[in-house]
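User: Design a sequence. Structure:
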């Protein structure tokens, strides 16, 4: 039992001892790796410092050599430029003297031409005045002849109209007299016929009246006898009723008087009613007329209002359309004016810039002289003064004032083309010089490209200065130090100094 317990206690102790050993080994490996890394970093720093010192020394040497070469080249260039400038100055002076002489001769010729043109212009004006006076006299004579002819025609027409008026007035008086006579004759005949017809009708009516009177007299006598008999029989039969009738008659008189009074009142009322009805009818007619007139006026006013509304709508539509067109046209005009103003400002800025860049020769003589002879110039001037017949030539007449501008523009274009060609030639020459300089620098400098290519001047043997125990560690860190410089080589930016300014720069 004790052995088993001892074995159980010894097993964890042995495991702890193994763990401690492993931890100590790991710590030792870590310390060894740290020391190797520190040694490697110190070596690389020393190597980098050596390469920097060598590169700065080589750069100083190259700069001093390059500066001496550039001084010599610049001296030669400046001497050549001075000679060229002196020759160009002499040529410019000769050219300016010749230009001044040509301008003086041109000025004299222009003054002579101006005097001749003025004399011809005054002569033409005198001729035109004479022609105008002759034309005015001819027009006055023609106007007087036409006025006399028109007066004669007017008098003849007036006489013919007066004669025709007299004839027509005499004819109308005769016609009026004849119509009056015919009317009087017809009126007399009509009155005679009317009187005779009236007498006949009156005689016939009297005869018929006598005959009817005789017949009615006999009938009346017979009826009167019958009436008397009937009256006697009636009075006898109605004697006792007569008394009652008398009493009733008295009552009837009273009632008749009352009825008359009431009838008068009723008649007055009826008259008032009829008058009121007439007034009402008159008022109704007037009101109907007024209502009709008001309706007609209302309809006419409504029609006028509708017409005015339609006209107003049309006027609004036309005004709105014209306003829209005006706004669009104004906006387009403003945009066009803004573009024109911007273009004009740009042209003025360009003109100011061009004026600053002009040479003294261009300021003195802005327009190049014509290469044509005097006869050719006169012929060209005559051709230009002739009135063109073709539409293109007529359109070109509007741009005659831009001839001087086009002369300067063409001159600038020609100079631009010449400068472009000179620039191309200079760029080719510069490229050739750069190529020669690159070959020279490749011959005197040490770079990776030079070392990779066969070079007869330099023969360099590379030696590995790294210790053997650090090669494995350097192989592990090779991916992180690919950008380190070699001690025997220079960077591309350090090996290619600027051939123009004499300073270094990266390519």
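Assistant: Done.
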């Amino acid at each position: 039992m004790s052995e088993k317990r001892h074995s159980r206690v010894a097993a964890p102790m042995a495991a702890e001892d193994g763990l401690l050993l492993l931890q100590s080994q790991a710590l030792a490996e870590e310390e060894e790796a740290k020391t190797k890394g520190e040694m490697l970093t110190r070596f690389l720093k020393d190597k980098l410092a050596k390469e920097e010192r060598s590169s700065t020394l080589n750069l100083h040497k190259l700069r001093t050599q390059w500066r001496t070469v550039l001084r010599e080249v610049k001296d030669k260039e400046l001497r050549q430029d001075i000679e060229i400038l002196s020759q160009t100055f002499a040529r410019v002076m000769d050219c300016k003297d010749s230009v001044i002489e040509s301008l003086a001769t041109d000025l004299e010729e222009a003054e002579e031409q101006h005097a001749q043109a003025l004399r011809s212009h005054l002569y033409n004006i005198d001729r035109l005045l004479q022609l105008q006076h002759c034309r005015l006299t001819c027009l006055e004579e023609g106007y007087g002849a036409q006025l006399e002819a028109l007066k004669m025609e007017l008098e003849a027409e007036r006489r013919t109209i007066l004669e025709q008026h007299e004839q027509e007035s005499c004819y109308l008086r005769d016609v009026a007299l004849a119509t009056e006579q015919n009317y009087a004759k017809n009126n007399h005949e009509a009155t005679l016929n009317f009187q005779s017809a009236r007498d006949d009708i009156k005689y016939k009516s009297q005869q018929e009246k006598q005959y009817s009177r005789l017949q009615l007299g006999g009938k009346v006598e017979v009826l009167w006898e019958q009436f008397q008999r009937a009256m006697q029989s009636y009075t006898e039969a109605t004697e006792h009723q007569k008394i009652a009738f008398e009493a009733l008659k008295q009552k009837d008189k009273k009632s008749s008087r009352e009825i008359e009074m009431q009838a008068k009142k009723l008649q007055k009322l009826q008259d008032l009613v009829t008058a009121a009805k007439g007034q009402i009818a008159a008022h109704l007619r007037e009101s109907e007329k007024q209502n009709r007139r008001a309706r007609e006026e209302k309809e006419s006013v409504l029609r006028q209002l509708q017409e005015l509304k339609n006209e107003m709508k049309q006027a609004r539509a036309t005004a709105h359309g014209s306003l829209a067109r005006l706004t669009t046209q104004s906006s387009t005009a403003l945009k066009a004016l803004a573009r024109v103003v911007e273009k004009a400002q740009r042209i003025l800025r360009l003109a100011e810039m061009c004026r600053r860049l002009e040479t003294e020769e261009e300021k003195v003589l802005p327009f190049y002289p014509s290469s044509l002879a005097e006869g050719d110039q006169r012929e060209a001037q005559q051709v230009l003064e002739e009135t063109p017949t073709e539409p293109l030539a007529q359109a070109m007449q509007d741009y005659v004032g831009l001839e001087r501008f086009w002369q300067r523009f063409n001159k600038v274009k020609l100079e631009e083309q010449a400068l472009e060609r000179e620039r191309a030639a200079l760029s080719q020459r510069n490229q050739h010089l750069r190529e020669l300089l690159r070959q020279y620098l490749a011959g005197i400098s040490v770079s990776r490209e030079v070392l990779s290519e066969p070079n007869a001047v330099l023969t360099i043997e590379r030696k590995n200065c790294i210790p053997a125990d650090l090669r494995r560690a350097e192989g592990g860190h090779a991916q992180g130090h690919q950008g380190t410089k070699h001690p025997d080589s220079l960077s591309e930016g350090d090996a290619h100094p600027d051939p123009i300014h004499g300073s270094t720069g990266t390519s």
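Confidence is low (pLDDT under 50) at residues 456-507. DSSP finds nine helices and no strands in the chain.
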